[in-house]
Amino acid sequence: MNVTNLDSATFGVTDMAACRRFWTDFGLVESQVDGATVFSCRNGATVVLRSADDPALPPPIEPGATQREATFGVRSAADLRAIATELERDRPVRVDAAGTVHATDPLGFAIAFRVAHATRVTAPELAFNTPGRPDRINTRGEFFRSATPLEMTHTVFMIDEPDKVVPFYTDRLGFIISDCYPGRGYFLRGGASNHHHDLFLLNIGKKRGFHHLAFEIGSIHELFGGGLNMTRRGWRTALGPGRHPISSCYFWYFHSPCGGAAEYDFDSDQVDERWVPGTFEQTPEVFAEWCLAEGMADSLLYKGVQSSDTIKRKS
Predict the structure, then answer these.
(1) Quick count: other Cβ atoms within 10 Å of Cβ 185?
(2) How many CA atoms lie within 13 A of 38 on its CB side?
(3) Angle at CA 69, nearest 5°, toward 65 and 74?
(4) pTM, two decimal places
(5) Is there a contact between 209 and 201 (Cβ–Cβ < 8 Å)?
(6) β-strand pairing of 278-279 with 290-292
(7) CA 103/CA 133 separation, integer angstroms
């Protein structure tokens, strides 16, 4: 059904001032749209903030500040009509004045679809010196004091019934499994997306909720610059910096006052129809090739890693 990207994430928040400061420090651009506070990436994808008691929000999947709806972009109005028709087979569907299609998945997560607002964006080209390939001669490498996210790439739902929800996205909405931890985690991309995943479904047992929201930036230098800026400004690391073997990206997660975490990514896999999905065991070495861990959450794929531990791939 030609889902192209994660286009927007809407949050119900309990401390609007803290949330505004968080996303400003994270590098998004603030505006006001239709009574909501909106933060934008370079490509136009948005984080939307409303008070947790705003009646315009879908019901929460969990108490407190959390993501209340994930909106996915599609290629065309025809794709949008096809999705609405499919969803109307067995669940309530609402189409708002802007034409966005709203519904819930089988576990109660609010999802929406619209013709994509996000546009193509290109990272600034950076030169790197490597042995035998000196691309930056007589020029200092660029230094970043903060980060500016280019794209919002994926959201993560904590689920407890994968057999019930994974086929809903793949069989009915055209999402594709890029990789998986069988029974534990499923990396799903839209049928017309080249992101490794636009949605990750994470099974940690008897819990449903929002886990994190991820953003792609332009270089490893910017990832460290952004992470250090967030640290200087008092935001607490959830995990990182480190690198994921699955999706290949460098990462740095920060606890968010909106609920869950926000993740900087760099060098994530881009895939197409030739990609061969992988099946992986649920071990620390598969989740993080290496990582400087602080405040490791129980909701990650593995538990028991303490602050300051270093995770490394087994030789």
Answers:
(1) 23
(2) 13
(3) 150
(4) 0.92
(5) no
(6) unpaired
(7) 52
For the record, the structure tokens of 291 come out as: 């990582």
The rounded distance, in Å, linking the Cα atoms of 118 and 5 is 8
Q: What is the spatial order of strands in the sheet that 310-312 belongs to?
A: 278-279, 176-181, 185-189, 199-203, 151-159, 209-216, 261-266, 250-255, 237-243, 290-292, 310-312
Are 62 and 24 in contact, with CB atoms under 8 Å apart? Answer: no
pLDDT in tens, 199-250: 999 998 889 999 999 999 999 999 999 999 999 999 999 999 999 989 999 9
CA dihedral 104, 106, 47, 119 (to 10 degrees): -90
Alpha carbons 253 and 255: distance in angstroms, whole number = 7
Q: Could you give the C-alpha distances from 164 to 156, 168, 201, 289, in angstroms and in order?
A: 17, 7, 12, 31
Cα→Cα distances 240→65, 66, 244, 308, Å: 23, 22, 10, 10
Dist CA 88 CA 86 (whole Å) = 6
Q: Return the residue matching tokens 């599609």.
A: 74
Rounded to the nearest 10 degrees, the angle between the axes of helix 220-232 and helix 16-26 is 150
CA geometry: angle 223, 229, 231, nearest 5 deg: 105
